[in-house]
Write a structure and sequence with these properties.
The protein is an alpha+beta fold. The chain contains 3 helices and 13 strands, in the order ααβββββββββββββα. The chain has one domain (13-215): Jelly Rolls (Sandwich). The strands form 2 sheets. Strands 4, 6, 7, 8, 10, 12 and 13 form a 7-stranded antiparallel β-sheet that branches. The mean pLDDT is 94. It binds fe (ii) ion.
Length: 220
């Protein structure tokens, strides 16, 4: 007889926020130890230009990552739309700087300014694939959220948003990304591009990572 474990129920947004807060506060209180240990692994450039370093994968909860928008260096993927929505709930603690996020409501329209894309779930080959999903919309700005260092910022799955950290400014967050919400897709909206966007996740070289960590007061 074969026994299969049932898939755990996805967590509600409020549970992710509440459990994430405790977990992240614990990590922050040990940050000078946790980050140098994690930095033994490779950090990657997010397509929109910030550094991603995985810190911890927590069973039943999600993935904890350090995100750094360096004042000195951002490596972006050309043509990658910046406005997007996630399949996961997110809670994050601002370690340094001011985290600024514009949030939008998607207004479907056949003549809309923006074209929709979906992110193909990772296949394990390290290539990101973003393909047009045939949708078209306008975007209504519904909020500009500014979160200062020392505060938490939360975002439910499915809300379109764009992060705005000025060039020349440093911002860093510890983010918990929940497990994906069933039936959702990571989506982006941007200019028309029939062929979609494809690219490798680029590793961050050690010197750049060390310099970015120094910007937030962490030595490796
Ligand atoms: Fe995002």
């Amino acid at each position: 007889m074969t026994l299969t474990m049932p898939e755990p129920e996805p967590l509600e947004f409020s549970e992710v926020v509440n459990r994430g807060r405790l977990l992240i506060e614990d990590i922050v209180s040990n940050i000078s130890k946790v980050v140098p240990l994690a930095a033994a692994r490779t950090a990657y450039w997010h397509p929109t230009g910030f550094i991603v370093l995985n810190l911890q994968d927590v069973d039943g909860l999600g993935l904890v990552r350090l995100h750094i928008w360096s004042r000195d260096r951002r490596t972006k993927r050309r043509g990658n739309p910046e406005t997007h929505s996630h399949v996961f709930h997110l809670t994050s603690f601002v370690l340094k700087g001011k985290y600024v996020e514009h949030q939008f409501r998607e207004v479907p329209s056949e003549t809309g300014e923006f074209f929709g894309y979906q992110v193909i779930p990772p296949t394990g080959d390290g290539i990101d694939r973003v393909v047009p999903d045939g949708s078209r919309c306008d975007l209504d700005l519904v909020a500009v959220e500014e979160t200062d260092a020392g505060k938490f910022h939360n975002l439910p799955a499915g809300v379109f948003h764009r992060t705005e950290i000025q060039e020349g400014e440093t911002c860093a967050t510890i983010a918990l990304l929940s497990r994906p919400q069933p039936g959702m897709l990571d989506r982006l909206v941007g200019p028309e591009n029939h062929s979609g966007i494809e690219g490798e996740r680029l590793p961050v070289d050690r010197r750049t990572l060390a310099a970015a960590l120094l910007e937030i007061g962490i030595k490796i």
